[in-house]
Design goal:
The complex is a heterodimer of chains A (107) and B (120). Chain A is mainly β and 107 residues long. Helices cover 0% and strands 51% of the residues of chain A. Helices cover 0% and strands 51% of the residues of chain B. Classes of the chains: A mainly beta (107), B mainly beta (120).
Amino acid sequence: DIQMTQSPSSLSQSVGDRVIITCRTSESIDRSLNWYQHRPGKAPKLLILDASTLQGGVPSRFSGSGSGTDFTLTISGLQPEDFATYYCQQSYRTPFTFGPGTKVDVK
Amino acid sequence: QLELQESGPRLVKPSETLSLTCTVSGGFIKIDDHYWDWIRQSPGKELEWIGNIHYTGKTYYNPSLGSRVTMSVDTAKNQFSVKVTSVTAADTAIYYCARHPERKNWFDLWGQGIPVTVSS
């Protein structure tokens, strides 16, 4: 299976901050990397697909980049509704695997 | 707007079978270019993809669960289901149903999840 790591595991931020989350895979997956946001009690939400494509309806403050084994999710100007846990997921090969998550909470 | 909702017993005894259903509302499960997935997250662990099913009955399972998992679809009821046999405490998790576009392999719609505890 393709192993996923994320860093940091958590970070405390303030509204308006820029947040950068990193995801690394155990082998090259081209650009087959997706990002999700998960707020407690809510359904997880797809934010970014294929490393950098914004899912419809997702605010433009979210952006993704990377290819191969290293990827980043950037939130430019954190909003109150953005405090959540973020997961990366590889869609390169089954079984699909997820990163351990990065929890963004209020500083 | 399409929504997914998981349902089923929230407490299952060890060695028994866990059975969950996902109801698709606001749309149809009988769509050629989508698969319907199950994903779970055990306490303190990563999200784990369990497998998926197409409305035609075609399935893909994560080998990590071996032969313990089976999925089925009921197009008349707009539902799909998962069964996990011989459960142990390690199967305690929040179980999510989700949708993924064929050949895209991302999950563009999720249910809220249902917590299931395996305990006697």
